[in-house]
Amino acid sequence: MSAHSTSGSAVVAGHRVSPDHYIAGRRVETERRFEDRAPYDRSILAEVACGSEEDARSAAQAAADAFPAWAALGPSGRAPYLHRLADLIDANVDRLADVECDDMAMLLRSLRARVIARGARNYRSYADLAVAHQERDWHSNDTWNRVQRMPAGPAAVITPWNAPFMLSTWKTAPALAAGCTVVLKPPEWAPLSCSLLADLTEEAGFPPGVFNVLQGIGEEAGAALVGRPEIRRISFTGSPETGRAIGVTAARNLVPFTAELGGKNPLIVFADADLDAAVAKAAGQYDDAGQVCLAGTRLLVEESIAGQFLERFKEAASQHVLGDPRDDATTVSPLIHPDHLARVEGFVDRARAVGDRVLIGGERSDAGELFYQPTLIEPASNETEIVQREVFGPVLTIQTFADEAEAVELANSTEYGLSGIVYTGSAERAERVGRAVRAGTVWVNTFLVRDLTAPFGGTGISGIGREGGDYALDFYSDLKTLQILDGTTG
Fold first, then answer.
1. Is 35 a catalytic residue?
2. What pTM was estimated for this model as a whole?
3. Buried b (16+ CB within 10 A) or exposed e, 60-85
4. Residue 293 annotated among the catalytic residues of the structure
5. Of 101, 293, 345, 467, which one is the catalytic site residue?
6. pLDDT in tens, 319-363
């Protein structure tokens, strides 16, 4: 990884990136910094600003100061800004992808082909949805009634380190379209592509303070930000533990809060499924080293085909190539950080200790410091930790079921409920099982196909609230009912 950094600048993959805050339309340096290192070779990419309570106050105040004028523009007045930003993302796909690949280690070809461009889609879609919104209008009790959206105020957006650029746009696009101003807190393990997003908002002509970036450590800068009285909405993606802490602060300040908190998602394969397609999709769950919240990490396979499935799965998994995420031959990238590698390794070690069988993998890889082998575990019971807790690494489990009822029972047997994947050749079974699996999204014979107008979120400890389409625009708004008595004139 090629990088050069000083306290106020960094050059990553040949591109200049500011590692400082972006507050009220200008870069803000800090004396206190933290190292940002590349996952692939652990080289230092930048010395990043370490946000303090005072920095959080400044960012929240900047958003509050900019809010009245931004809200007053209305959806049609804000849409051109979002469309210009989307155009700039499209024009900078390679730069954004290069930086995020070095910083987070997602496969470069994925970033260039689909992930970064999704950010542009987010801004265009929400700009257009906000403009096209029709207020609900009806007559009752001798009055005309209308439900109106009022921009809620400054929003705090806290994003995770897997696909940080795209997930930042997924949250900030509806916030900005709805008329909120934003303070974005990037992940400390991969903060740089979010900093580039701030540069693009400036180039798109956003007024100062409408879009702000607060760098720093989550427990410090993030905690200070969500506690600010100026903040009127909070959107977070991360762990249940952090989500609970943010939820307490949000409740104390009576601030609406959405959280996507990961999953332990089932991938159910019935005997009537296209087995080749199911195996290929199952082996594909090692994408991004398993650091995907929606991944189907619990393989549930009908008993009558379990042997065939396992044999084919082992062959498919053996084809994975662990290596440099910039190399087109690579299919599995490194984990994000040494602490995360130790966490993943700990799950597998504890699984062995309680009698779970490691069928493939189960060790660090010699491909590099932060690589872990694609791993498949047959648990001793459904209650073991490896089944019940999110690993967020290249670790899958495999279990069998006798019939549809047992498949659904196993699918719903964890505290999570983010997503589910079902492979079956029966439309009737697809409908039955799709309804029965408790999850925010269930895919049948496909995976990761997203309609941006559909609701997205989880049940159980996978989160609260919904993002996507009008659901997100409503979240970033205060809804008002206007009632006018019949015969009112003037």
1. no
2. 0.96
3. bbbbbebbeebbebebeebbebbbbb
4. yes
5. 293
6. 999 999 999 999 999 999 999 999 999 999 999 999 999 999 999
